[in-house]
Amino acid sequence: xxxxxxxxxxxxxxxxxxxxxxxxxxxxxxxxxxxxxxxxxxxxxxxxxxxxxxxxxxxxxxxxxxxxxxxxxxxxxxxxxxxxxxxxxxxxxxxxxxxxxxxxxxxxxxxxxxxxxxxxxxxxxxxxxxxxxxxxxxxxxxxxxxxxxxxxxxxxxxxxxxxxxxxxxxxxxxxxxxxxxxxxxxxxxxxxxxxxxxxxxxxxxxxxxxxxxxxxxxxxxxxxxxxxxxxxxxxxxxxxxxxxxxxxxxxxxxxxxxxxxxxxxxxxxxxxxxxxxxxxxxxxxxxxxxxxxxxxxxxxxxxxxxxxxxxxxxxxxxxxxxxxxxxxxxxxxxxxxxxxxxxxxxxxxxxxxxxxxxxxxxxxxxxxxxxxxxxxxxxxxxxxxxxxxxxxxxxxxxxxxxxxxxxxxxxxxxxxxxxxxxxxxxxxxxxxxxxxxxxxxxxxxxxxxxxxxxxxxxxxxxxxxxxxxxxxxxxxxxxxxxxxxxxxxxxxxxxxxxxxxxxxxxxxxxxxxxxxxxxxxxxxxxxxxxxxxxxxxxxxxxxxxxxxxxxxxxxxxxxxxxxxxxxxxxxxxxxxxxxxxxxxxxxxxxxxxxxxxxxxxxxxxxxxxxxxxxxxxxxxxxxxxxxxxxxxxxxxxxxxxxxxxxxxxxxxxxxxxxxxxxxxxxxxxxxxxxxxxxxxxxxxxxxxxxxxxxxxxxxxxxxxxxxxxxxxxxxxxxxxxxxxxxxxxxxxxxxxxxxxxxxxxxxxxxxxxxxxxxxxxxxxxx
Length: 766
What we know:
The strands form six sheets. The chain has an eight-stranded mixed β-sheet. Strands 4-3-5-6 form a four-stranded mixed β-sheet, covered by helices on one side. It contains 27 helices and 20 strands.
């Protein structure tokens, strides 16, 4: 061990007694400073412009696409080859390697000593980055310490791996420039090798293991895994051992077969170590982030663990003629593994596979019309060749239709989950997030566990709002729009309609929705509704101004009435009939995401709503969910023009100005359970148009989801909501950033330059 440290000490002296090490350190410090200050300045400018930062400031500055670590790790190839190129090639070119061979020093000690010197150099570079990390404690509020430490670990492991590669390249030639070029090339190969043989199952696993691209992603995200750390240690072992064997061949005469066998054995052992360490059952996880943001929520963990030891099969179907084919092509193999990794962590026998096919089902004849004179096979063959694939890799239409029925699904990449003979679909979505979130995945998993899927029935037959139309006032987006992640269908529910005139209400549904009926109920319909209520069924009733006479007789038993008139709310830009009530404390507890909306005073949009009158004597416990702002709104008894910007408050005509409830919850104990009912003085808050309103900040989706979650006793959906990060503001102003710029771009590099110059001058004098 002493010999190793003596070699390392000698090597460090050679590094720091030459200008190249000081030059690279100063350039590295300036580069980090520029990137750090740019990120800090951009965030300060955003905050001072009156905008909020919804994401972690620390994450944005350090690990974002243009962050410090992303920039540094992407440019390490500019530094390491110049530092490692002379480690051994200097010895071979000058002839001193023969003296080392003849000395009582082992080759292993020589190589390890030089590697220890590079580890020390790596610590210097990590120390430079830590300057900006420590500075963040004085510039950012509540930085995540665990995440910052994980940043430094990821950078250090990558530097050590690169150093071992550089040492090996240095032993292959007597020319330092050639060694540097070889190191450049090797870095390039190891970055791009994962793109080779992606269609061959075993080989793609091997090439992915050998690739360094993306290997630090999980560590940079704050999730330290045993296989991730072992990967870097295995790379260090492989290249150092290759270096040792290469130097030993200069001391002994061996056959080519022995040389090849030695090198092959090292590579095989390294791959075996990587393969064994990647077995899901053997991986150990450390989520060091605040709030464990890289770990699925406890409710989701329970759902995954409830699946037990039975395997879960996830089959992705990718139509080359449909959307999001990139999710199912061979290049997406490792990406999909990473997407499912948080769930494999808790259930090791999740089996992923992909079926590629072509089918015009759901596309019409457009594809054939746009390619006249060509058969479907010819069209697909051309498309496959464009993507470097073969026609034989795709199932024909008749083959895929025998395997799975996708006739009612959007023509996108889609996954089918199979467990104990049960099946359910898991969809991707044409939005910014694209991939199903933890909420949608957990809903699909839980559906596989339940013997009876929670079902919501919407009453139809009296001109109620339709769940099958995309009209402005209809409910398809909320209810069953398959390519919309927030629809109840994608949140775990089954959704359907029921005619009270012809059908009986099933006993075990989650909730019945009565939304804005236009005609009076018949005796048969009234009797069925009353029987459902008496049996303790959960219910959502929404009405509109002018429909009081239709619903008030039914609502009377609850102690709630739709009041005459409509809510007027003053606004500089919006129509006076658009009510924007706030969530109450009770309303915010319906669903976790609503807690943040309540704290931020986000409203629910309810155009042309009426207030609810609450009687003191009611068999139900009544709690307001939404209330109006008495400073801006009132109940207008007479009709008013909705396109007018000015509507007067006229108390002499019966107008009332106070805080009115626009939605209430009702509960009572009956039939051995808690009956839950929601009554709303508006039916538009669930409509397609209100769920896509962009001229005001609303929480309609979360509120609607919260209502149905509450009516379903929280069984669906399984919320993946996480509180906003704490480090979203700065402790400094933009004006103060310039002082940091002087310190990081001029003062610190100047100090390093002065120290380096002093050491070099004193060395030269000696």
